[in-house]
Amino acid sequence: MSRISCAAVCAAPTLGYVSDYDYDLVVIGSGPGGQKAAIAAAKLGKRVAIVDRLEMVGGSCLHTGTIPSKTLREAVLYLTGMSQRELYGASYRVKQEITVADLLSRTRHVIDREVQVVRAQLQRNHVTLIAGTARFVEPHVIAVKGSGQSEQARVSAGAVVVATGSRPARPAQVDFDEARVLDSDEILQLEEIPSSLVVVGAGVIGIEYASVFAALGTRVTVVEQRDRMLEFCDPEIVESLKFHLRDLAVTFRFGEKVVDVVVSDRATVTTLVSGKRILADAVMYSAGRQGLTDDLGLENAGLAADERGRLQVDEHYRTDVDHIYAVGDVIGFPALAATSMDQGRLAAYHAFGEPVRELAELRPIGIYTIPEISYCGATEAELTSAAVPYEVGTARYRELARGQIAGDSHGMLKLLVSTVDRRLLGVHLFGTGATDLVHIGQAVMGCGGSVDYLVDAVFNHPTLSEVYKIAALDATNKIRALERFGD
Ligand SMILES: Cc1cc2nc3c(=O)[nH]c(=O)nc-3n(C[C@H](O)[C@H](O)[C@H](O)COP(=O)(O)OP(=O)(O)OC[C@H]3O[C@@H](n4cnc5c(N)ncnc54)[C@H](O)[C@@H]3O)c2cc1C
Ligand SMILES: NC(=O)c1ccc[n+]([C@@H]2O[C@H](COP(=O)([O-])OP(=O)(O)OC[C@H]3O[C@@H](n4cnc5c(N)ncnc54)[C@H](O)[C@@H]3O)[C@@H](O)[C@H]2O)c1
């Protein structure tokens, strides 16, 4: 175990209190939640340490989750030539035989660069990085074990932020062999691209990976116990995604549950409750995640996790023990890198009495399937059940010059607009750049803007952003027609 000290380590607290503890704050876990908690406290002049295994600096977000999966997607889009096929024809490829090495070299490069960024940020904010695995021995005392499993350090802390993240849930009856039967954290270790793959669980992780492998030419079967997938999204957009995935030879088995997976050195057979058997090169489980609290010694801190390893917190991310906070995946929903970062920052502010504003309620969802999906605000189903009258404005990328230039004819935007006061209530996107474009709608809605702003604003041409203007015109044309009918 090593302790990587930073220049001018341990700046004295500036807020007028002197602590007997080694650190004012110790953060356990260096993922997005932990990083932002540590830096926020350091910016307040606190003495901060963050504990994680050296090879995990940046968290599972950086090593097995968000960043590698998004980089893999980008590599697949580029090498398969998929996003250019509308322009150059169905047989267009940048590389004929794509190997795991081709894909992983890009992923490795991005991870290495990002680790450097995280370490540099911690260093320049004078956060001490303690390498190892942390465990509570007392509510204010944390023992750190190195790779040899022996205790290497003991540190005391005025406040603690637990940001230990999550791991994939693994059903006990399935024999994960790290070669053909894998969970979603292990999928990046595949030695070759499978020609067929069973994905168990059609949550966000399952569907993102299903679309990446389908784009690579793998025959994918998705098994999902519920009757539908991504039920929180706009059903029309989910239908469009399913259409695209089926077109890439994805088979969906909804309302089906896996009972058994048998593996040999050549293949796997997945058996469903209905009796169906699916032969495939590999199986990936993406059937939910479990908070990482098993070995944290929570009992020594006066805490307990629920059956899914999660810690309960109040609105300030404080656990039942006043000086211990928890953020990120370890507190469960929404379990996103996006939200974990802000939770970390807010927890640190609260711990040191810094005034905070609550996070804006309006939060975007981004799903990096191929094509991607993103939305913000209300869905049609929510507005209908709340009896809020609205009109829909729709625009398709194929109507945009930029859509033609980019070779995306299937992309679309749906705007949901109040017919009472013309406020924007929801935006739903499908296609190229959806996860970026959503922020235009988010900003307008966040400022209480109306559809008229989008009609009157001048947009750069040719851009995909113009999709907002066309959808806004569509919505206002419909509203006007109805109003005229009313007169
Ligand atoms: C495949 C996949 C794709 C995803 N895609 C997205 C996406 O596109 N957008 C998005 O917003 N979110 C996405 N997520 C979710 C996102 O990755 C997580 O929400 C985020 O990483 C949670 O951050 P965290 O701070 O809770 O910690 P994590 O990133 O989970 O990191 C926790 C860290 O704590 C460390 N740790 C654990 N126990 C200890 C201990 N006892 N001592 C010391 N250190 C410890 C671990 O080593 C790890 O480094 C994805 C997740 C997966 C799995
Ligand atoms: N783009 C993003 O924002 C992004 C990307 C990936 C992951 N994430 C986050 O990661 C978290 C975990 O995602 P996830 O997809 O693993 O979990 P999930 O809980 O969302 O989905 C798991 C799915 O597996 C199904 N399932 C469970 N057991 C099954 C069985 N035996 N047979 C068939 N189906 C089964 C469940 O019904 C469920 O639909 C989510 O909270 C998500 O927000 C976010």
From TrEMBL:
Domain FAD/NAD(P)-binding: residue ranges: 23-344
Localization of this protein: Cytoplasm
Domain of life: Bacteria
InterPro entries cross-referenced by the UniProt entry: Class-I_Pyr_Nuc-Dis_Oxidored (IPR050151), FAD/NAD-bd_sf (IPR036188), FAD/NAD-binding_dom (IPR023753), FAD/NAD-linked_Rdtase_dimer_sf (IPR016156), Pyr_nuc-diS_OxRdtase (IPR001100), Pyr_nucl-diS_OxRdtase_dimer (IPR004099)
Domain Pyridine nucleotide-disulphide oxidoreductase dimerisation intervals: 364-471
Binding residue positions for FAD: K70, T164, G165, S166, D329
Cofactor: FAD
GO MF annotations in UniProt: dihydrolipoyl dehydrogenase (NADH) activity; flavin adenine dinucleotide binding; NAD(P)+ transhydrogenase (Si-specific) activity
Residue sites binding NAD(+) per the record: G201, A202, G203, V204, I205, G206, I207, E208, E224, G288
Enzyme class: oxidoreductase
Stated role: Conversion of NADPH, generated by peripheral catabolic pathways, to NADH, which can enter the respiratory chain for energy generation.
Record-stated family: Belongs to the class-I pyridine nucleotide-disulfide oxidoreductase family.
Name of the protein described by the UniProt record: NAD(P)(+) transhydrogenase (Si-specific)
Name of the coding gene: udhA
